[in-house]
TrEMBL record:
<dbReference type="InterPro" id="IPR002818">
    <property type="entry name" value="DJ-1/PfpI"/>
</dbReference>
<dbReference type="InterPro" id="IPR006286">
    <property type="entry name" value="C56_PfpI-like"/>
</dbReference>
<keyword id="KW-0315">Glutamine amidotransferase</keyword>
<protein>
    <submittedName>
        <fullName>Type 1 glutamine amidotransferase</fullName>
    </submittedName>
</protein>
<feature type="domain" description="DJ-1/PfpI">
    <location>
        <begin position="8"/>
        <end position="169"/>
    </location>
</feature>
<dbReference type="Pfam" id="PF01965">
    <property type="entry name" value="DJ-1_PfpI"/>
</dbReference>
<dbReference type="InterPro" id="IPR029062">
    <property type="entry name" value="Class_I_gatase-like"/>
</dbReference>
<comment type="similarity">
    <text>Belongs to the peptidase C56 family.</text>
</comment>
Length: 219
């Protein structure tokens, strides 16, 4: 597949790691791919760990695995929320099961584990979730970037260059699409912003020990 014909979905949630999100978005755009940022809501602002705001271009519930040639999962603390979203797990599994590419970095292999995709797969991650990966049945590697089939994983922000280079290589191995993806970003997200989005949290319900995160744009 020519990378210019590929549709790449990049997931986002609150507390995403800046380099692990923006580098794939900008690198795939530069390569000519159709890049679509996907989140739980396409009308909600999500904040990074340092306050970079993003409003997704597509709602994950509206995206099918067949729409994407690859799904990219950034790290930070966003995967803790992504892995609890049934629609995210559905999409990631659909992309994998149809033979397309799944790329995950840092904490993002948590999402692979929750989607049932880590068992028997050689992968890497940030070291503090190594035990989680091993307990999920993964063949854990200490390498900075690991490919197993169509799954590409990496450890840290310093590894994103090699991670996305490898991911582009794997996408290029895919067969050409018979029909173009119908998923397009009408207004691509921009890294330019006027006000930061600070992430806050609140109980899911009165007395609940489960907390929900939300971003507040500060003027």
């Amino acid at each position: 597949m020519d990378i210019a014909d590929a549709t790449i979905g990049v997931l986002v949630e609150n507390q995403y790691q800046e380099l692990e999100f923006w580098y794939p978005v900008l690198r795939f755009r530069e390569a000519g791919a159709n890049v679509v940022v996907i989140g739980p809501s396409n009308t909600t602002t999500y904040g990074s760990k340092l306050g970079f705001p993003v409003v997704p271009e597509a709602n994950v519930a509206d995206v099918n695995g067949a729409d994407l040639d690859a799904v990219v999962i950034p790290g930070g603390f966003a995967p803790e929320s992504l892995r609890r979203n049934p629609e995210v797990l559905r999409l990631v599994k659909e992309v994998h099961d149809r033979g397309s590419v799944v790329a995950a970095v840092c904490h993002a292999p948590w999402v692979l584990a929750s989607a049932g995709l880590a068992k028997g797969v050689k992968l890497t991650s940030v070291s503090i979730i190594k035990d989680d990966m091993v307990n999920a049945g993964a063949d854990y590697s200490e390498d900075n970037v690991v490919r197993d089939g169509k799954i590409v994983t990496a450890r840290l922000p310093n590894d994103v260059g090699a991670w996305i280079t490898k991911t582009i290589e794997v996408v290029a191995e895919l067969p050409a699409r018979e029909t173009p993806s119908g998923l397009k970003a009408e207004q691509p997200v921009s890294a330019v912003y006027a006000s930061p989005a600070k992430v806050r949290q609140r109980p899911a319900a009165p007395g609940s020990a489960n907390y929900l995160q939300f971003a507040v744009t500060e003027v």
